[in-house]
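During the second half of the funding period, the structural biology subgroup turned its attention to how the target accommodates small molecules. The most pressing case was sodium ion, which had performed well in the primary screen but for which no bound structure existed. We therefore specified the complex as follows and requested a full 3D prediction, including the ligand pose.
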Amino acid sequence: MGILDTFVELWKSTGIYGFLTLPGVDGWGRLIMIFIGGVLLYLAIKKGFEPLLLVPIGIGCILSNIPFAGIADHVSLVGLASTQGHESVFQIENVAGGFIGMFYDLGITSGLFPLLIFMGVGAMTDFGPLLANPKTFLLGAAAQFGIFIALFGAVLLGKYVPGIDFDLYAAGSIGIIGGADGPTAIYVASRLKPELLGAIAVAAYSYMALVPIIQPPIMKALTSKEERQIKMEQLRHVTKTEKIIFPLVVLGACILLLPSATPLIGALMFGNLAKECGVTDRLSDTMQNALMNIVTIMLGLAVGSKMSADKFLNLNTLGILVLGLVAFSIGTAAGVLLAKLMNKVSKHPINPLIGAAGVSAVPMAARVANKVGQEANPHNYLLMHAMGPNVAGVIGSAVAAGVLLAIVPLLG
Amino acid sequence: MGILDTFVELWKSTGIYGFLTLPGVDGWGRLIMIFIGGVLLYLAIKKGFEPLLLVPIGIGCILSNIPFAGIADHVSLVGLASTQGHESVFQIENVAGGFIGMFYDLGITSGLFPLLIFMGVGAMTDFGPLLANPKTFLLGAAAQFGIFIALFGAVLLGKYVPGIDFDLYAAGSIGIIGGADGPTAIYVASRLKPELLGAIAVAAYSYMALVPIIQPPIMKALTSKEERQIKMEQLRHVTKTEKIIFPLVVLGACILLLPSATPLIGALMFGNLAKECGVTDRLSDTMQNALMNIVTIMLGLAVGSKMSADKFLNLNTLGILVLGLVAFSIGTAAGVLLAKLMNKVSKHPINPLIGAAGVSAVPMAARVANKVGQEANPHNYLLMHAMGPNVAGVIGSAVAAGVLLAIVPLLG
Amino acid sequence: MGILDTFVELWKSTGIYGFLTLPGVDGWGRLIMIFIGGVLLYLAIKKGFEPLLLVPIGIGCILSNIPFAGIADHVSLVGLASTQGHESVFQIENVAGGFIGMFYDLGITSGLFPLLIFMGVGAMTDFGPLLANPKTFLLGAAAQFGIFIALFGAVLLGKYVPGIDFDLYAAGSIGIIGGADGPTAIYVASRLKPELLGAIAVAAYSYMALVPIIQPPIMKALTSKEERQIKMEQLRHVTKTEKIIFPLVVLGACILLLPSATPLIGALMFGNLAKECGVTDRLSDTMQNALMNIVTIMLGLAVGSKMSADKFLNLNTLGILVLGLVAFSIGTAAGVLLAKLMNKVSKHPINPLIGAAGVSAVPMAARVANKVGQEANPHNYLLMHAMGPNVAGVIGSAVAAGVLLAIVPLLG
Amino acid sequence: MIANSVVIMVVGMAVVFSFLILLVVLMSVLSGVVLKFFPEKEKEAPAPSSAQAEIAAAIAVAYSRS
Amino acid sequence: MIANSVVIMVVGMAVVFSFLILLVVLMSVLSGVVLKFFPEKEKEAPAPSSAQAEIAAAIAVAYSRS
Amino acid sequence: MIANSVVIMVVGMAVVFSFLILLVVLMSVLSGVVLKFFPEKEKEAPAPSSAQAEIAAAIAVAYSRS
Ligand code: NA
Ligand code: NA
Ligand code: NA
């Protein structure tokens, strides 16, 4: 082949050529997706939207949509296969595929990465404020209402809006965005509807970043200024023993009642036990740092690789974004309303703003509750009170995830 | 399906339902194993029994025995298989199975995790005290006697006690508990008799934690107060060059004489060389910290997953616990007795207590030797002297492991 | 089997027996390779030759050549295979093979490890000096000339020297040594000619370590003392925004023009973006430290495992060593000569010594340029000026790698 | 499918609430037990770190000398 | 094959140079745009770390008292 | 199998002892060689860390001023 021919062949391997000549969304669609990846990077870096996740997701989206590069290609094992009796042996000689595809195939479809992240979350979470005021568990339950309303909405959209195509598996995966908890959303979506994983993860992290914008109007609309000024009693000291017992109690209850949630709850509570037990600080430290960061990089890239044009550039994605916002809003409202109700019933005052923190989005939602409270009364510090429902919301959405994983396959 | 039916189906997926209705050990047996996992956590957290390993093992045991959750299920690769000529390709689209099952299948059956831990052990071990007094190598050899006595005992139990079923592979795996070295025991058991891995690892780490209780009576019974008061000469300074040469010499000897031990010895000595050579501190630091902690978490969970009711709730486990104790005791006694003999022969005084440190269980056994020595003479500091046999015991049990891996398959 | 027979069998499993009785290079060849591994350790530890890589490579070489130990054996998945329709399931029960073989099969053949290292390199690289003086990009381009000359030389050797057997794939892999960039060389060789990976990686890292010896004579021969004394203008301050835009611009250009280089450039620029964007310091820190160190250990061992006697002890290896030196020398010369030319044309003075830094070998080559400059004029600090071409050389060799990956398969 | 989504909503919220109410009850009871039978011992303030101690020493020296 | 290796050399060096020249142009233009439209704000010196602050405090106390 | 376990015991202990005795011999010889031909140079005390240095400076200032 001559020099000119080689240049021509090389030209046929350029991205420009790919964008222009590959058929349909596989061509120009890739360019749009690369642009969307750039938008995610912009939001993450300039606007501070959950950068630890959205930077890797954005890069993952960009790299995975490059024509001819195959960076998100499935892993292929190449080697010698043999079978003797009913035992087979596959000797690997070569592993083909893209490196981000490898992260996706091995770390996401298996559920491993979100569980490791959740372990790290457990090792970073202090359940003390929740244990000091266990009633706030209920606020973490109420805020899950958004999950199920969004699920219902997804089914409606799927049925009545042409161009949107959501079955019950999709609806469950979309609803879990309302859990406001990244690893839980990724875990559920990867089990129920992996095709939607990209859009769901982006929606979940984006709305978590938007909590300071989404929540305050709802919180203010549902509360009077007097309610927002309510001062809460100081939280009691929680002993080390209670903090050690707590993860085991939650895990025990989950084992007895909801095994489908035990991978998530088990990972979370293992991390928390490692933190609280006081004799495994090395492990807890690694879960929170080295391991969590490594997995975050790989998980983010892998999630980004699910933002392919054919799966992302359609009305479904729009539906997911709308429903995710609905889920966050309803969850916020449900938390606030239950807190108002509890305040009526309880003898200890409860500021209804902390109900909004029940959606999780730790610790952003708790900070928002504190901030809105201080707007009404600058001397009112709600942060620690809001941490109770906030961390309860993590458990609440893991439980909701367990329910979805258990019953969606029965009904869908 | 109506609401009531769904609740009924959900009830049938609860742990309570599973414990009550699954057949035999697969039902109530799981509950017992979860309780045993809780006991391990209690021992680790409240009693300080090797918490870095027993907390993950305990959680692994609990999570793996949850009905219907499948957290320890084998990894399954799902995708497209094709064969062209004698080359096969398996394109992975999905990885199924439980996340702890994944750690076990990929990290334990391959031998990878114990070897990485051993590399970290090497990077944390200072062989200086051993090099200052090379004779103490012999004490690290004598203490391996417990391994072979326990192996013999296991064969006897397997032959004469009904309900105990040990073949030579099992006996070798049980014997290695006497090596008092977690990664070595896990490596050998995973190669020779994986079914017993759970019980063997638990016995090994438990007895390592119990070294301060098991060893002193034996040490005192075999020595007079005068012997326990023996002061040893101060250890000479060991040069950096000797410390760099040492791992290469051990590896070289192992290559020439016992290749079956080279994965263990190679990993240990690679770690030690990285520590001592002075130009790879980054790697040595990572081996000791981030990598070691990550692997410890995964290895602990995976080992715990082998504590399934059908493999654990039987007389074999009882036999393993008894034989493990025998192995530790005999190893301790052999070390002390050889030290007494050496003291008779050598012109430099040797306190026989340091012989007990030859079992390894670094650094616990060396501390015990020091403590028992100080009971006899409060001004006698044996710690550094005992570190010699202590680290020699690590090499000794790796060599014993190599012998077992080489000849058990020939004879079994 | 009796005691004596067992000893005989054990003798037949020793390394001595293997070295003496295994046929041809598989016997004594292993001993030679173990010796060569020892030489690498000596060079790394005593002479300071790239110890972070050459210590693991040396140990990998030693461990992989031990007879009967199988530490570099391919991974084999053992389990149950089944097929339903066109979907296959392989349930893994056991993973066999050697632990270093596992690193090679999963981390090198897939390209994963060099890409992760390159990500860490990106997170450690400051492109500021390059952005302050973008013309120095050209020096990073000129220095890649060595790559293509060495490729040409490899083809010539393959054609005319009996006993040397290089096809175009081999020639491309050998040429890339001239990129003076370890991960790039390993990535390209693992894609084009994995059989030569061991020799190529050893040559690349050795010559990178030898840069202070190889480059100065060439630099001095091609420049006059006056030229070496040229002072350059102080570099302007580069803003944070430019540093954030830069990785995205490079990635964008690579997407449009050279998708085959995007795995390398993408990983490098992801790491750099994580460093510069200021909101993902956790990730950048992990890329540079924990993750990079872990991968370095595994990659080094895996690369060492490709130094098997049958692949290493032949004239090809000698050819690779010679061509690698040629590539470094030509690259150095081309960089210096282009700098001289630019100095003639440009209105801003350019010291031709900094052209030599265009080969990459970061930061060694830049230090060499600075040192040679100070020999001519002790008050001339060229270090920051030389960092521009130095980091441009990293991009330059990744681009050259992309070209090779794209056109060698077309022509070969 | 709409009926099914209503079923999921009802069952889901029922399970979430039941589960978290159960945790409220369990932890309230267990906290009571812990606080009654395993009260936390008074802990001394942790010793200041060595760096802080040295700084304090420097300050103290500065004071005493002046 | 020798012809092919010449082809690779020509094409390869052409692509490497074109690519890096493109980067020179792009970054020169973009740097101009950035420096003109998004000039960097003057940054204050970062606050000294708490440990340094305490040391400084110790020194200050020592000075003022003396 | 009992016979076999006795074989393993004998062979095993023999190998373990032989191997470690070999190491005693090898390391004794090599230590002798190293100590004779490559004696360690005297090392200076490592410089105190910068934080300690600053504390020391603070103390010194405090002293000198008082
Ligand atoms: Na939540
Ligand atoms: Na031992
Ligand atoms: Na280069």
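Two results from this model are relevant to the next phase. Helices of chain E lie at 2-37, 50-65. Chain E touches chain A at residues 4, 7-8, 10-11, 14-15 (CB under 8 Å).
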